[in-house]
Design goal:
25% of the residues lie in helices and 20% in strands. With 361 residues, the chain is of the alpha/beta class. The strands form four sheets. It has an eight-stranded mixed beta sheet with strand order 7-8-9-10-11-12-13-14. 47% of the residues are buried.
Length: 361
């Protein structure tokens, strides 16, 4: 639980956010004594004093009531291949309208999107579009030929008011929905969004709490795994990503424990994407992940029972292809973010031997 100690925003700032439609009463909060309130949207569970903001810089306490400051605030948007999330076993080859806002529940020192993830959600940022209604978002997704919507680029766990409204309309319009997440949503958050969320693409960065404490400023990673299991139990399609950072989470024991946990708790058919780290932000002195380390991670994943392990952020001849775990035949050929369906039936099975691949076509 974080006790916020941030500076108070000015009335002028709050009024500007109201005018832009960005200020909405938070969906999950607990009123406390002396005007304080506890935010229940992400696992930090910030206790926020009157006039202060939460750790994510996107929740403000106004006279004892918590408000999100990023409703309809879009910093980034693109019609992306679903493979870019990366999601390989759900609607392969489809386009997904991907949007992000400002702020994050984490402070990863290696963040690739730190410009928006570290941003202050109280600043009417010039890089953002404001007042993007849920109706407008879904309309744009359809107009750009997308069959799904993803909340990504920054962390959707802090954006519940907006993701919920958009997800409801997306389902009415026949579009699939995706969270590309660090896994920090609370159980209450997940329960609210679950009826309208199809895909939960979650980072399992390490099995070590020390990794999370030192590189992310999060005391424990236990809740991330618990909520991932909850998402699976609610019927969401799950895929996991581990960005392999030399010297931090690339040991054989950590990779083996990660793969074993995914297989035992989420299922042996859940895809595990092991991706190459590139020097960035405060880890600019750490070299890129050697290909040999990534190939070792793939081998370890398979030894621990995972049927589908993929190489990411690196070009290889076969590292992103899907093969049938039973007969070994090529199922999906991937080059860059393009997918060519070769051996998968419309029921998500191998067309040669009938193996259920767990792929949603």
């Amino acid at each position: 639980m974080d006790e916020s100690k941030t500076a108070k925003p000015s009335e002028k700032t709050l009024e500007l956010l109201r005018e832009k439609g960005a200020l909405k009463e938070s969906l999950i909060q607990e009123r406390l004594k002396e005007g304080r309130a506890r935010c229940g949207v992400c696992q930090r569970m910030c206790v926020i004093s009157p006039g202060a903001t939460g750790y994510c810089k996107t929740v403000v306490n106004i006279e004892g009531v918590l408000y999100t400051t990023i409703y309809g605030v879009i910093s980034s948007a693109a019609a992306d291949p679903i493979e870019k999330k990366p999601v390989f076993h759900y609607k392969p080859g489809s386009l997904c309208y991907s949007v992000g806002s400002l702020g994050c529940s984490f402070r990863c020192v290696f963040c690739q999107n730190w410009q928006i993830a570290y941003a202050d959600g109280l600043s009417a940022d010039s890089i953002c579009r404001y007042g993007v209604t849920a109706e407008a978002l879904i309309s744009t997704a359809q107009r750009t030929g997308c069959t799904g919507v993803a909340w990504t680029y920054n962390e959707p766990a802090i954006w519940l008011n907006y993701t919920l409204d958009c997800a409801k309309l997306a389902k009415e319009a026949g579009l699939y929905t995706v969270y590309v997440t660090n896994g920090s949503a609370t159980e209450a958050h997940l329960d609210i969004i679950a009826p309208y969320l199809d895909v939960y693409r979650v980072d399992i960065k390490s099995m070590s709490d020390e990794f999370y404490r030192k590189l992310i400023k999060l005391p424990s990673s236990k809740g991330i795994r618990e909520v991932a299991v909850r998402a699976r139990n609610k019927g969401m399609h799950i895929e996991c990503v581990t960005n392999v950072i030399p010297g931090w989470n690339d040991s054989e024991s950590n990779l083996r424990e990660t793969a074993r946990w995914i297989a035992d708790n989420l299922g042996d058919a859940v895809p595990w994407h092991v991706t190459r780290f590139y020097p960035y932000a405060k880890l600019a002195d750490v070299p890129p992940t050697p290909l040999s380390v990534l190939e070792r991670a793939v081998r370890i994943g398979r030894e621990e029972g995972l049927k589908f392990v993929y190489l990411g952020n690196v070009v290889t001849a076969e590292g992103e292809n899907t093969y049938c775990p039973t007969c070994g035949e090529l199922m999906i050929k991937r080059i860059g973010f393009e997918s060519r369906i070769v051996g998968v039936t419309q029921e998500g099975r191998c067309r040669y031997d009938g193996t259920d691949l767990g792929i949603v076509m």
